[in-house]
Amino acid sequence: MDLTKLTIASARKALDAKEYSALDLTKAYIDQISQKDAALHAYLEVWEKSAKDEAKRADARIAAGEALSLTGIPLAIKDNILIEGRAASSASKILENYRAPYDATVIERMKQEDAVFLGRTNMDEFAMGSSTENSAYGPTRNPIDTARIPGGSSGGSAAAVAAHMALAALGSDTGGSIRQPAAHTGLVGLKPTYGAVSRYGLMAMGSSLDQIGPLTKTVDDSKLLFEAIRGYDASDSTSLKESAKDFKKPRVIGVPRAFLESGVDADLLTVFEKTLGALREKGYEIRDIDMPTLPYGLAVYYVVMPAEASTNLARFDGIRYGLSEPAPTIGEVYAKTRGKGFGPEVRRRILVGTFVLSAGYADAYYRKARAVRAGITREFADAFQSVDAIAVPTTPAPAFKFGEKTSDPLAMYAEDIFSVPVNLAGVPAISVPCGHVARESSQLPIGFQIIAEHGREETLFAIGKDVEAA
Fold first, then answer.
1. Is residue 375 pLDDT above 90, yes or no?
2. Could you tell me if residue 329 is inside a domain?
3. At what angle do helices 344-357 and 297-312 cross, to 10 degrees?
4. 8 Å CB contact between 175 and 420
């Protein structure tokens, strides 16, 4: 088997045809991890023994003719998604010894198909970051160029798939944390409609923004994994009973030209325009649209997200679970535990979130941000009255070097300019590789982002396949 060319779809055919076993496939990925991961640090933990046991169960199911789409497929899981009995730290020291007491709904659904879980992947601590430099356990490196970041916060999942150390992976996307690392590592990254995939068992950062989604090599694989994990879940109060809409072939793609003036690298914009040209040749109408509120999305996001994060992370207090630092008073326990357990970026966002929610500033910041968020959501809904999808670059620049932006948080936050409006509006989006740009001696991949209206993932897959073929 050639792991560099293998996809979920092709592996499914080979497994069902008995060309090799799920155990053979799993061993091949474990071997690849042992050879490569010391240099990349995509995994925080590899579950070799249990993965082989899961592969044997999958082989028995295949032999019985009862295989489903993920039976025997080796996957990597982001460290903020719970698997019963497994460590789940969200790449934070405060949860270093925490073990999950139950399965996330997405894990439960994959277990029902007898998927194989290779291990948990590195990430920015509590999903706060765009580079995986904020992990308490050290950064993950980009397999394309190890001097560069793989993106974040799902950088470990992206690196694992890009380096052929997993066939596919799950990540979480709060403001671009699946799509941005997918763009930086040459993968397909899907952020589903808010509520289409259960968040039960996902460690919350921004509860109105978070979504679990797949990182894969192809659009077809993205669809396969999405179909396996999607669906209503009574355990998640934000879960949609029915999110999918009847498919209609997309014809018109809108491009918010004014938004593209938000600091996109010139050569990246050239590749983006070339991809639009290829889609035009395939019969799509490319139409300029006006979405004047989109540029405010970044500022809105960095008010709403810290506000929600500061509330969600209040549970990590040294009393209920996780790290606990002894002290004479409960206030000192809180302070010492959080001071030792949380990294700088997490502390920064908690402070910002607490500030914008405080009595004296909630009207000036948080409530105003919510009002602008509602305007962005309306703007997307209005745009989808005249276009089937919206296209923008996934990122304003290719993968940057380690340390390049760590001293300037605002420059790091600007990396999310094209991805955060999607989460604010709750609409689905996909990043598909569309070419490369040169930086020094490296050819770095870039992503073409397609955005659709609620429940229109099929639109993303249809256009995404045409981008792949361009």
1. yes
2. no
3. 100
4. yes
**How many Å apart are CA 246 and CA 313, to the nearest integer?**
39
Q: Buried b vs exposed e over 105-119: b needs ≥16 C-beta within 10 Å?
A: bbbbbbbebbbbbbb
**Burial annotation 274-291 (CB, 10 A radius, 16+ → b, else e):** ebbebbeeeebeeeebeb
pLDDT tens for each residue of 85-127: 999 999 999 999 999 999 999 999 999 999 999 999 999 999 9
CATH code for position 184: 3.90.1300.10
Please tell me what DSSP assigns to residue 142.
B
Q: What local confidence, expressed as pLDDT, does residue 53 receive?
A: 98
Q: Residues 279, 288: contact at Cβ < 8 Å?
A: no
Q: What percentage of the chain exceeds 90 in pLDDT?
A: 94
58 part of a folded domain? yes
**Cα first-last separation, the chain:** 27
Tell me which residues are annotated as active site.
78, 153, 177
Asked if residue 1 is part of any domain, the answer here is no
pLDDT tens for 387-402 read 999 999 999 999 999 9
* Range(s) of the domain holding residue 129: 8-229
Place of tokens 């997490």: 346
Q: What is the tally of structural domains in the chain?
A: 1
Distance from chain centroid for Cα 133: 16
| Dihedral angle of Cα 90, 95, 101, 106, to the nearest 10 degrees | 0
Strands 211-216 and 285-288: unpaired
Decide if 67 is inside a domain: yes
